[in-house]
Amino acid sequence: MAKFRIVTPAGASFTTAGGGYELEMEALQGLDAEIVEAPTDTAGFIAAASTADAIYAKGIPITAEIIGALKNCKVISLGSVGVDSVDVKAATRAGIPVTNVPDTFIEEVADHCMMLLLATFRRAIEQDRMVREHRWKEGRPALLQIPRLMGQTLGFISFGRVARAVAKRAAPFGLRMIAYDPFLDETLMSEHGVLPATLNEVMSQSDFVSMHAPARPECTKMLQEKHFRLMKKSAIFLNVGRGPTVDEAALIKALSEGWIAYAGLDVLEVEPPSHNNPILSMDNVILSAHTASASARFDEARKRRVGSELSLVLQGKWPMSCVNPAVLQNTKLQRWQPVGLGRGPNS
């Protein structure tokens, strides 16, 4: 039996065909560690994971019940930015650090957000349809109703890594940018050419509202009908973050009744959506299947990052990215300084 036993739900989540754990194991070589798959039902998973040294979370919720049954777990590692599949509060109470990969897919998601911004603004799908349906002469008159992009206002709700990367891309287009993020120092916004604003100011002043709030309980249905009613009739709503942060029924109402003009959505409240979800038949919506983070490097990058986090903690070191860093203060894990970088993982 290996010295370190890492348990993960059987099957895969956000993975390419073929499966396997070769990429995760690269960083674990020499540690006498093994990754073992466990049943995905709660009872079966608990039976397999109760004495595990680590949990590689994917595919199923890691609930308070599961966490409460872990007797020897040193870390719960996720191969995603979002951590909503793990009860982080329960893990914190149990003294277990939870790691994620917050910086691995930032560029892809920011690219996707800019794609949706431009495609919705210039009505790309609409224009394509006109050509295919032999309505060539309708294309120019439709766009003559739309203002120039330069000088329009892009408003961010939450100004984390992805939003900052979007701001970097949007600046050369001449967009004025504002952001609502009560947890962020305003000077950081100004460094990105973004002005601080209240939530109501973002909703009422923006020509584009880009939603980036995290998947946390306090952010569930953060945007409601009263917020969409504040938006300009010509405004466009973008979401490449998390679907449940938006009251989807209110968004559908806003789109169908003309409170706002358009939406570009990579995420929905329920995924995949029901076949009778009205949003699927709306001409003023561009959709993608929660694919903003996808690229050729996606699977390899996140798997190697998971392996690195597991390896660090199993060696008694602090992980690179911890969503509940307070637990690290009460552990025997050692801080580390990566060679060649100017700062440690928790600076």
From TrEMBL:
The keyword DNA-binding does not apply. Residues 114-292 form the D-isomer specific 2-hydroxyacid dehydrogenase NAD-binding domain. InterPro entries: CtBP, D-isomer_2-hydroxyacid_DH, D-isomer_2_OHA_DH_cat_dom, D-isomer_DH_NAD-bd, NAD(P)-bd_dom_sf. It comes from the Bacteria. Residues 31-293 form the D-isomer specific 2-hydroxyacid dehydrogenase catalytic domain. Transmembrane segments: none annotated. It holds the Pfam family 2-Hacid_dh_C. Gene3D superfamilies: NAD(P)-binding Rossmann-like Domain. The keyword Oxidoreductase applies. Keywords: Oxidoreductase. Belongs to the D-isomer specific 2-hydroxyacid dehydrogenase family. This is C-terminal binding protein.
